[in-house]
Design brief:
alpha+beta; six-stranded mixed barrel; 23 strands; globular
Length: 886
């Protein structure tokens, strides 16, 4: 209680002082009342000031009282230098806000453990393998029959759980006219119990719900989806939803904190794995495997056991690959099971953005370092102006650590204010960055709560920043010697050398930021300029489904309705859009063996190439009489790889399936190369086949899905999505059996391929601008301080006849020497760091002279601009004024 009273008295201020005075006066009055002379009583009592100080030492926490006094003094100092303080606070706030934003994103995607029991015991079962072509890769998809065998083998050593990739699917709670999208994930019935999760409402799946395919059509809603879609209505339990051809009953709502196992994607509906259409197929790898391994369990024996089980399963399956070359089969069987830590979950977003976010964090730290060095130089300059004040404090008894505390408190106020502003910036910046990597078809969502993790990081950041830019000026201020200070200091150039050294560091870090930003921008530029082989502008994609199947004539009737709409130039159909899906197989040319290289196929309708504006280089497009199998149009890469670059028109090849089934095709045309799956990969051999498919007897088969490609004309070509609603309704009105499942543009698909590069380019440019601005301000501050310190020397030099060029050289030589030194160090750091960033670059070499020269030229130009005011100040110094001032 006594301790808390001493602390409380620190903050009572004048009231506490008045109470002390009143107490002292009451003692004197008591003495007078006892008959003593007033003057004698006061003389016996002693000095009122001394008594008050003695009493304060007993009743007030001295350290805290000194801290309060330093805080008040520091605040007054900042207010006295308002412009300088504001610049320091804003620059720190920007850098600290960026740091907190980066932390929120990295933590939510890569570091935050799943809200399950013992997440540290969770591992993803993956495999290192070779593609059919022999290229090494990693894959975490599994066939369910393989999973069943591995789970049985791991019994007693670990629990295995199957979780599908989250898919965005069509579903309805009423009729097909009220179709909506939902993020769906199939999970093992025992997952909930194994993860230690409990329902927020209703019940969760059990092992009994996940034994027999299709036997238990039940669903669980995530708490987030239940809140958004149903407003937390308890009556949602018992309702039914239709997903494809399945009618499912909602039986529960998941726990509030659990949004699935894929960070970056919030699962909305959970279904038992037994409700998946491919649960019995051994050739469909549609789910991941998570292993819960107890502490102390032997992971290598378990891994070896699962490896044996998987290899046996795949060898048995490979016996049916009669149509494949033996080399492709050997490559396929080159697999090794691996355990990867999955405490934070497993997702494609993690794999795609892990390195990007790590380097984004590095950029942010570099900007923060530049800001801290900037403020450190500022604090050093201010400390220089207060040298006599510090000397006086030492003379009257102030200890070294008392001076350190005073300067650090001032630094703490700066970093605290900057931290507050940075928190506001971070609150908006992290969701903004997340929105930049999200898309309509693949929405990215992360939980970004301002919880203890973010708060702890913010506190550590504020303290770290305070020490980073405040400790050096504080130590220098505390080391002042009164006699030396009064004489002008031991070494008037020592402080300048320290400030110039910090300038070199700023320049090195600034170069590194600009260098990395340039690499990111160049990569995005190269990806954006890749030849597509067609024109995506004005191309609208209506991805449609016919649950009960539709013959080609029905699809063509809908296309005719679309062609009649105003603003529509052309309409064609394909099995799926380019760069949205894929299908591949081996081929055999002239009756030869199946190829090791895979060929990629896409079924298209007559007029598709003209609608895409894809140039036909030889032969012709498809006609209405062409069927699949039968005719084929191939790209130039196909012709080069399988026909030695000769004109393949009129030549034959066969598509060879896994089971050895061969379908005959005759090449009727050759088209330009176009990216099939991804703009980053090399051109693949592609064969376009007719959308009209027939069986072995020549009977036309119905299609359950297709994509209408609508080429808009005129003003509609600039914003094709503006007509999406009208065209969607036109499809529904034209045929009762066909409905549009999804609408997007071809340009959206292309842009979606470069989201990561666009994000890095935009943020890199932003941070490069901030770093350059901060470095320029720092350079200006140091040079301006140098001119003020050498004002007398410059005046004397001018008086004895020094020319302007000599004065400019005198002022800028040492600073530009540090700039050049910083550039040299920056080049070394840039080349060293670029070696670890290769996967983020595309057709860009870090050692390219241009990539090194541009940041150097920009920094030198910024340095010239930043030094100009100080140079003009130096040239304007008049010797007479200097002499008069002295």
């Amino acid at each position: 209680m006594w301790v808390w009273t001493r602390v409380w008295n620190v903050f009572r201020g004048d009231r506490f002082n008045r109470e002390l005075n009143e107490e002292f006066e009451s003692h004197i009055e008591e003495a007078i009342a006892e008959g003593r002379d007033p003057d004698g009583a006061r003389q016996v009592f002693g000095s009122m000031l001394r008594q008050r100080e003695a009493s304060r030492r007993v009743r007030v926490s001295g350290w805290l009282d000194g801290l309060k006094a330093d805080a008040i003094f520091g605040w007054r100092q900042l207010r006295r230098n308002r412009v300088t303080s504001a610049a320091a606070i804003l620059s720190l706030a920007l850098a600290m806000g960026a740091c907190v934003s980066a932390f929120r994103l990295i933590d939510a995607l890569l570091w935050r453990p799943l809200p399950v029991a013992a997440p540290e015991r969770l591992f993803a079962v993956s495999r290192a393998e070779l593609t059919f072509e022999g290229k090494p890769t990693h894959f975490d998809g599994w066939a369910y029959p393989d999973f069943v065998l591995m789970r049985a083998a791991a019994k007693g050593q670990a629990e295995l759980v199957a979780v599908s990739y989250v898919e965005r699917k069509d579903l309805t709670y009423a009729s097909d006219e009220e179709m909506e999208k939902g993020m769906v994930q199939y999970v093992s019935g025992w997952m909930w119990e194994s993860f230690g999760l409990h329902p927020a409402l209703g019940r969760l799946f059990t092992q009994q719900d996940d034994r027999i395919p299709g036997a238990h059509p039940v669903a669980i809603l995530s708490y987030d989806y239940w809140s958004r879609r149903f407003g937390r209505d308890p009556k949602a339990i018992g309702r039914t939803l239709r997903l494809g051809g399945q009618l499912l009953e909602i039986v529960g709502v998941g726990p509030k904190s659990f949004t699935g196992t894929e960070p970056g994607t919030v699962t909305e509906i959970f279904l038992p794995t037994m409700m998946h259409r491919s649960v019995t197929r051994d050739d469909s790898t549609w789910h991941r495997i998570l292993a819960i391994i107890p502490l102390g369990a032997g992971m290598e024996p378990l891994r070896a056991k699962l490896d044996t089980i998987n290899l046996g399963f795949e060898r048995e399956r490979a016996k049916g690959f009669t149509g494949m070359p033996q080399q492709s089969i050997d490559n396929y069987l080159h697999q090794r099971v691996e355990f990867l830590p999955a405490a934070t979950g497993v997702s494609g977003l993690q794999a795609d953005y892990r390195q990007a976010l790590e380097w984004l964090g590095a950029l942010v730290v570099l900007v923060l370092a530049i800001a801290c060095l900037n403020v450190a130089n500022l604090m050093t300059a201010l400390a220089a102006a207060r040298t006599r004040e510090m000397a006086l404090r030492v003379s009257i008894g102030a200890g070294r650590w008392r001076l350190v505390q005073m300067v650090l408190v001032e630094s703490a106020i700066l970093s605290g204010l900057a931290g507050g502003l940075g928190a506001i910036f971070a609150w908006r910046a992290a969701p903004l960055v997340l929105s930049m990597i999200s898309s309509r078809d693949n929405p990215a969502r992360l939980m970004l709560p301002p919880d203890w993790r973010v708060l702890s990081f913010g506190v550590v950041l504020i303290v770290g920043v305070m020490l980073l830019f405040g400790m050096l000026p504080a130590m220098r201020a505390s080391a002042v010697k009164p006699v030396s200070a009064l004489k002008g200091g031991d070494d008037p150039n020592a402080r300048q050398r320290m400030m110039h050294g910090m300038i070199a560091l700023q320049v090195a870090f600034c170069f590194l930021v600009l260098f990395m930003a340039g690499l990111f921008a160049k990569t995005f530029q190269r990806l954006s300029q890749i030849p597509l082989g067609y024109s995506p502008q004005g191309l609208l994609l209506l991805e449609s489904v016919a649950p009960h199947g539709k013959f080609p004539q029905g699809w063509e009737e809908v296309a005719d309705v679309l062609r009649a709409k105003p603003g529509v130039e052309r309409v064609a159909e394909s099995g799926w859009p380019l760069m949205a899906s894929s299908s591949n197989n081996a081929v055999a040319v002239n009756g030869g063996p199946p190829s090791v290289d895979m060929v990629y196929f896409l079924p298209v309708s007559p007029g598709w190439f003209e609608t895409m504006r894809m140039r036909v280089r030889a032969g012709r497009e498809f006609m209405s009489t062409d069927v699949n199998p039968g005719a084929a149009v191939v790209n130039r890469t196909f012709a080069k790889r399988f026909f030695n670059g000769e004109n393949p028109v009129g030549k034959n090849f066969e598509e060879v399936g896994d089971e050895g089934l061969r379908q005959h095709f005759r090449v009727v045309g050759v088209v330009a190369d176009a990216p099939y799956r991804n703009v980053r990969e090399v051109q693949l051999p592609v064969a376009f086949v007719p959308l009209r498919e027939v069986d072995a007897k020549g009977v036309v088969l119905p299609e359950q899905s297709a994509t209408f490609l609508v080429r808009m004309a005129g003003s509609d070509a600039k914003a094709p999505m503006a007509r999406a609603g009208e065209l969607r309704k036109a499809v529904a009105a034209a045929s009762a059996g066909i409905r549009v499942s999804n609408v997007r543009t071809q340009q959206e698909l292309i842009d979606g391929q470069t989201v990561r590069e666009r994000l890095l380019a935009v943020l890199g440019a932003f941070f490069a601008s901030v770093a350059l601005l901060l470095a320029g301000i720092g350079l200006y501050g140091v040079l301006n301080y140098s001119v003020l310190q050498r004002r007398r020397e410059i005046g004397i030099r001018v008086a004895v006849g020094a020319r302007g060029g000599a004065i400019v050289q005198l002022v800028t030589r040492s600073v530009f020497t540090m700039v050049v030194a910083g550039l040299v160090a920056g080049v070394g750091l840039g080349l060293a760091s670029a070696r670890y960033m290769d996967s983020l670059f595309f057709q860009v070499k870090a050692s390219d002279t241009t990539m090194l020269a541009i940041p150097s030229v920009v920094i030198l130009a910024a340095a010239a601009v930043a030094t100009l005011p100080a140079v003009l100040r130096a040239l304007g110094i008049e010797p007479v004024e200097i002499l008069r001032a002295e």
